[in-house]
Amino acid sequence: MGPGKRGLITAAVTVVCAVTVLATPGMAFADPNPVPTRSSAPTTPMAPGFPATPTAPAGVPDGYGDGYADAELEAVREQLDLLYREAAAATDQYNAAEEKAERQSAEIVELAGKIVEGQEKLDGLRERAAAAARAQYRTGGMPDEAKLMLSENPAEFLDGSGRLRQGQRATKGLIGEVTRAQDALKTYAADASAQWKRLEANRAAKATARKKVEKRIAAAEKLESALAKEEKERLARLEREAADRAQTAWLGSGILDELRGRATAQGRKAVRYATDQIGKPYVWGAEGPKSFDCSGLTSRAWAAAGQGIPRTSQEQWRQLAHVPVEDMLPGDLIIYFDDASHVGMYVGDGQVVHAPRPGRTVTLAGAGTMPILGVVRPGV
Fold first, then answer.
1. Per the count of CB atoms within 10 A, which of 59, 127, 230, 286 is most buried?
2. Cα gap 373→380, rounded to integer Å
3. Beta-strand pair 372-377/363-366
4. Catalytic residue among 210, 216, 269, 342
5. 233 Cα distance to chain centroid
6. Radius of gyration of the chain (CA)
7. Is a pLDDT exceeding 70 seen at residue 356?
8. Do 67 and 61 contact (CB within 8 A), yes or no?
């Protein structure tokens, strides 16, 4: 959050605190899952919403780095994939919470402005009411009948009494305005208090998601760092082979034979922006310009093309128009995995540009190298 946003929120809180007492909910985090070592295997379940982590490969030698066979390295590769997928899902949760927090903060600032305006209006109405009361006091508060009997000019009095009735009606209207202003002020204060509580709860959810991301990435990095150099090289080879197998199977379905459409003008702009970012590092929660996560890249690319889209891959899947895979065009977004935790942009020729995971950079890859959930098209 930038300094400007912090200043706005501080101003809003100052006003809101004047009219309500704010409560901050507590936060609790589950213990991280243990990373496999030679003396322990992960038995603790993952956090709710995540699949269980596989156990350490059977027959692992005495400690990582002591000579995995390819079959054992394949099990390590699958576990790394799972950890990074869990991190991606938690990143989506974090990004969604961040986006919601920004909206809630803006709404609090708006409500704070209404509270200030409402209080100023109420102060003005009260001053008008006080002036009317002082004017009535100066007339002595004598009943109209007595004033008529004592008046030397009854016609003049009757004319004055008409004006008095108008004044009474005006006073009644003023009282009504004061009442409505008071009610509106109470409503604004209640809304601000409720919104603040929702913001605090959302901040707690964001902190929990951050913990999940950091734990999963730390576990993956620990697992990778325990491998010897030669094993890391073989692991990279296994990753490439797995991706090649998946892409070959996808292409073998004949899908490219069906893809004949041309990108729209906006689609071409989005593709140009996304491909210009190739080589920039993946950083979870980042949306440019120096680094990106997967949905940060796609949302920024379409923003550069003049089309705003949701920030997270899950919301992109939920809100954008779905199109059949065989009808996709360059610029369309391919959503991956059953939980919609990853997204890439189709660029043509069976390729996507995407930000893969921590430790990697924005890159081109085969569109079929990951399980495809579906395709969405912005701007429809």
1. 286
2. 19
3. unpaired
4. 342
5. 37
6. 33
7. yes
8. yes
User: What does the pLDDT read at residue 172?
Assistant: 66
- Sign of torsion, CA 184 186 187 189? positive
Q: Is 354 a catalytic residue?
A: yes
Active-site position among 60, 294, 297, 320: 294
Q: Is 322 a catalytic residue?
A: no
Handedness of CA 59, 64, 65, 70 (dihedral sign): positive
User: What are the Cα distances from residue 130, in Å, to 178, 275, 321?
Assistant: 12, 68, 60
Q: How far is Cα 295 from Cα 334, in angstroms, rounded to an integer? A: 11
Please, what sign has the CA dihedral across residues 66, 70, 72, 78? Answer: positive
In single-letter form, the type of residue at position 306 comes to G
Pull the structure tokens for residue 376. Answer: 């969405």
Distance CA 218, CA 212 (A): 10
| Catalytic annotation, pick one of 210, 234, 354, 377 | 354
Give the pLDDT of residue 137: 62
User: Which residues make beta-bridge pairs with 335?
Assistant: 343, 374
Query: How many C-beta neighbours within 10 Å does residue 139 have?
Result: 9
